[in-house]
């Protein structure tokens, strides 16, 4: 059990497997201990999807498609719906986000034979350099979150890049975050204690998928109160 999880469970006195209040202090401590990818890194982008606020409208997916010119048939972000839960008429659904987790220890980067898959040392964003990608699909096979695909137009590997080129460079939030009508998505710098992202992580219990693999994903989820939990 990691430290953040132990703190949460101790504080709540409740045993809920897989949940944690993400410890920003732990992040900083890890940095000081040299565990992090780059301890001098002052920006490390992450995202939270609050499943309690999500209404499954898919505005995020459509905005992503438009802004990043994602072709039909593939997607950088998917909102999965499960349910209904409960008895009619008191039924509810769970909406969970599936997209790149921007892993700090990214399997896709490790297996790429050309260096096309990489972690940006300035932002922590996991990117794809289409000029170096040969379409071998090693990264697609290695990703435990199944979020990579071959772009049918470019014939190179593609996935969410937190809108680095299309939005962040213009000083904007990612397109999905801007489009979300319920503010279910929060994006920001996990190294900035004043960021809305860090305040959200401090105020709500979150979980991350497949942390047991050691990938250190930076997509956090606030689990829906109703419905199942899929890790
Ligand atoms: S979620 Fe998959 S594509 Fe994204 S960084 Fe992790 S291994 Fe790579
Ligand atoms: S951050 Fe950008 S690329 Fe990633 S899912 Fe949102 S809109 Fe798409
Ligand atoms: S836009 Fe917001 S509310 Fe709509 S599906 Fe995406 S995350 Fe959920």
TrEMBL record:
Q: Which UniProt keywords apply?
A: 4Fe-4S, Iron, Iron-sulfur, Metal-binding, Repeat
* Repeat among keywords: yes
For the 4Fe-4S ferredoxin-type domain, which residue ranges apply?
Answer: 45-73, 91-122, 124-153
The record's section on InterPro entries has:
4Fe4S_Fe-S-bd, 4Fe4S_Fe_S_CS, ET_IronSulfur_Cluster-Binding
Give the top-rank taxon of the lineage listed in the UniProt record for this protein: Bacteria
Q: A single Pfam family, by name?
A: Fer4_11
Q: Does the keyword 4Fe-4S apply?
A: yes
List the molecular function annotations (GO) for this entry.
4 iron, 4 sulfur cluster binding; metal ion binding
Protein name listed in UniProt: 4Fe-4S ferredoxin, iron-sulfur binding domain protein
């Amino acid at each position: 059990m990691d430290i953040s999880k132990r703190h949460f469970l101790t504080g709540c006195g409740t045993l809920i497997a897989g949940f944690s209040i993400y410890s920003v202090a732990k992040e900083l401590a890890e940095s000081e201990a040299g565990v992090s990818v780059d301890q001098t890194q002052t920006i490390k982008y992450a995202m939270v999807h609050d499943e309690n606020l999500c209404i499954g409208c898919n505005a995020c997916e459509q905005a992503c498609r438009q802004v990043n010119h994602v072709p039909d048939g593939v997607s950088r972000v998917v909102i999965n719906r499960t349910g209904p839960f409960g008895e009619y008429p008191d039924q509810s659904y769970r909406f969970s986000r599936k997209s790149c987790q921007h892993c700090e220890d990214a399997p896709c980067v490790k297996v790429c034979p050309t260096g096309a898959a990489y972690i940006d040392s300035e932002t922590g964003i996991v990117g794809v350099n289409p000029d170096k990608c040969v379409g071998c699909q090693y990264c697609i096979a290695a990703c435990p979150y199944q979020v990579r695909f071959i772009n049918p137009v470019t014939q190179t590997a593609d996935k969410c890049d937190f809108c680095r080129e299309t939005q962040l460079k213009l000083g904007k939030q990612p397109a999905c975050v801007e489009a979300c009508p319920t503010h279910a998505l929060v994006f920001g710098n996990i190294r900035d204690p004043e960021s809305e992202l860090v305040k959200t992580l401090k105020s709500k219990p979150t979980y991350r998928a497949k942390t047991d693999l050691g990938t250190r994903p930076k997509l956090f989820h606030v689990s829906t109160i109703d419905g199942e939990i899929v890790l």
